[in-house]
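sorry for the late reply, my laptop died twice this morning and i had to redo everyting from scratch. anyway the thing you sent over, i finally got around to it. pasting the sequence first so we're on the same page, its 702 residues, then the predicted structure underneath. double check i copied it right bc i was rushing
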Amino acid sequence: MKRDRAGGLKAAISGIFIVLLSAASPSFAQTQPAQAQAAAAPPAQVREMMQLMQTPEVKQWMSAQMAATSAGDTAVENQMSLLSGLLQHARRHVSMVSDAAMTLPLQINNAFSLLFGEIAATGRMRMAGQFLAIFLLGAIIESIARYAFRRRRRRLAAMAGMHLAPRVIPALIFAAATVLTLLSLYWPPISQSIAIVCVVALIVQRFTICLGGVLVDLIALARAEEERQGIPAPTMPGRAIALFWYRRSATFIIYFIFGWAAIQSMEPLGLSPSARLFAGYMLGIGLLLIAIEAVWSRPHKDEKRGHEISWALTVYFLLLWGLWVTGFNWLLWLGIYVLMLPRVLAVATIAVKSLRQTEASFLATRRIATVLLDRGVRALIIAIAAIWLGRLLGVGADTMAAGDKMVDKIARGVIGGIVILLAADLLWHVVKAYIDGKLLDSPLDGTATDEEKAKHARIQTLLPIFRNILAVVIAVIAVLMVLSGLGIEIGPLIAGAGVVGVAVGFGAQTIVKDVISGMFYLWDDAFRVGEYIESGSHKGVVEAFSLRSVKLRHHRGPLTTVPFGELGAVKNLNRDWTIDKISLNVKYDTDLVKAKKVIKQIGQTLLENPEFGPHIIETLKMKGVEQFGEFAIEIRLSMMTKPGEQFVIRRNALAMIRNAFKENGIEFAVPTVQVAGDREADLGAAVARYASHMRANGEPAA
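ok and here's the structure:
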């Protein structure tokens, strides 16, 4: 529609230009036929339209319409050129491979002639023996090692502390024997290249079988442990499912690595790159069939949904093979990543989890190794995938380091950002595991000294805050490095953040005050986690900190969150020592010397008590008479104990004082009220009133 409108607009403008030219140029008018001469005098409507077209608004609108039409045409042309370029690329690639297929028999004959010529010059029996040694000698030495270490297998596993040893050590022996066999023999150039790729394929095959078997055993052991614990929904797959995927995956990997070895062996034999591509595509059909067979034979619960997924995955695999054949390798690997990367990460997670469950005793005290194993495996998988995709896009490490193209800069920024974020995630989890380990590995028993308790309380207080600060620092540095890698100037960003921080500081002075006050409270070591403090109307046991507040648990239960800026003066009731004073009221006739001796004996008893004695610094003793009251003598007692222990000791001391005073005839004074008067007069008056009452009722007086 835009094109039709633009065409009509162009036709109208052309007609107007003709009219103007005919009116302005007599020679032009003379050369036109009669019809054009008649049109030289336009009607009033045309003249009005011409005048309207001279206005600025109409000119601006016409320019905008022309620009939009041109931009739309350019976009369509670009899209068409892009699609055409992709189609031409696919055609050229398919044509190149098909041409190579026509010449492949001739190239194979030349390759065999070249290889057999080298073998004949070296000796057929010798070369056959050397290749046979590569394929068999490693397996023979591994079998001998297995027989020799069969009796020591359990001891070897116990020494290694892991279930990996019985499988990994024979595989290492196989790899070492195969490599030594390769290095100890003389090889002609072509045979040497073929022997190297064969050795690589054999070692990869052996470790694929080894590590796959280890993974199946770990999953089976973890599943058995979950069933033993009675977990209703086990997280580990069963052994049958694990064996199914292990066999298919091992078959796929072994087929792939030997196909890769075959294609790599074609290069020293003189086969062209297009011929090697054709051979790879033909071998890729085997990979496609293995993947389709695994999809259709996989165990699944829902039959209908399982068939739908199988058909979808089959079409997806065929599409990937088609992208590979047509030369779109980066789309191929992108599709592989979309499908396989989540599964690979899930398998890695299951493997690490199984290893943690089966080797709990070995990894219990190795938290950092566990974190490196868990997060490091994920980070390594993602980093390798990102770097490989970058190489497929033509931006290798050397190109990204010095490339000035926009694609190189973007790829460098994206891949570098992925690596930086993975490194930051790994660093954070390592630091977090170390700090959490310090918090959990510092329990105190009853024999801990006051200095050890103070150190423990300080660690429990400062390490969580330090962990939070490190999280913020690592996150900020990682984000800034990623932005810098993407080509964004972080200098103005940092300066702007500083200005915004100052503005926020003025607008949020209370928060800034709380944070700074908290830093100085911690710097002065005013209180620690687990200590009982009082500040104004707030009091309780310090349970936790944040950057701007402290949580106090009252002895009756409520939890109060107090900003540091509101604490003010802090009274810490858990430092060094505390003095507890007790006041008692005794009667005026009390023998104070005897009371002092009784209290001294009680203090000695408390000091000798194994439960209270370690917490008493100065035992209970009587200080003397405090004052004379209205009804009693007030005496003062005191004792010095460790902080927090005075309450229990005080209760037991009061109970012992009450019993000891009772046994020694010492009585506590209590307030009494005495009423004074003439008791005989009152008694006579009462008798007279009673006799009068009896006479009034007609009863004889007693």
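The radius of gyration is 47 Å.
thats about all i looked at so far, will dig more tmrw
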